[in-house]
Amino acid sequence: MRQIIDYSPNFSKKSRLKKQVKFVIIHYTGMQSEIESIKRLKNRKFKVSCHYLINRQGKIVSMVPENKIAWHAGKSKWKKFNNLNNVSIGVELVNKGKKFGYQNFTISQIKSLLKLCKNLKKKYKIKKENFLGHSDIAPLRKIDPGEKFPWKKLSKSHIGAWYKNKKINLNLKNNVKRNIRYIFFKNLYKIGYRYFKINKPSKIDFYITKAFQQRYVPKKVNGIIDDKTLKISHFLANN
Predict the structure, then answer these.
(1) Which of 15, 122, 163, 202 lies deepest, with the highest CB count within 10 Å?
(2) Is 92 tagged catalytic?
(3) What is the mean pLDDT of residues 198-226?
């Protein structure tokens, strides 16, 4: 797979072992242009970087060697892992993002991303459910890659988790709100999401729910645990 090398100085100098790489984290750049994005990712002052950047034409730019730790995830959690920089490969997709005019990802971009992810999956034996978005691992801080990112399409190539549309009987007692919230967050914890307490409702619930919906219910991102959101969480937690 043809790549352009344009290395950033922003990475941890100590090398990591191949077996330590367990995740691929997908981001959008959230800046006004590709040039600005690359400038930021190479600027020592900002202390951010990624292993790969994919531009709107599908060109893949290698920015940090895979055996080095790039600084893309920041403060993050997933299952038993904290600070996912250490155990992941970060991929940035050029997109203006919510701040500057959120765009659809291009066909060329997604085609290149799929090729890259398939190679990484095979090379590092990464589980399909370990292809995550920045908002999955840092839902209180990040919203990328957002609701326009085609997780469903990627899942057809066994990249990223997805759900099947089938009838799910939840056996809800009295259908009370507290019961629904408890089941939903219990499911999310099992899937891998963190930053909340299963037994304690909080203002944080809204942001965690939105992060989940951005990925799995992209046409209805409102932070409300409706029937569809609940059932999808139940399917993903139990399959």
Answers:
(1) 163
(2) yes
(3) 96
Q: Does domain 4-155 match CATH 3.40.80.10? A: yes
Out of 130-134, 174-178, 215-219, least confident range = 174-178
Distance (Å, whole) CA 115 – CA 53: 13
What is the value of pTM for the model shown? 0.95
Spatial separation of the C-alpha atoms in residues 183 and 233, rounded to whole Å: 9
First to last CA, the chain: 33
Distance, CA of 171 to CA of 173 (rounded, Å): 6
C-beta atoms surrounding 24 within 10 Å:
23
Residue of 34, 36, 66, 92 marked active site: 92
In the chain, where the domains are located = 4-155, 177-237
Contact 121, 108 (CB under 8 A): no
pLDDT value of residue 3: 87
How far apart (Å, rounded) are the C-alpha atoms in residues 25 and 87? 10
Residue whose structure tokens are 């060109």: 59
Mean predicted confidence (pLDDT) in 93-117 = 98
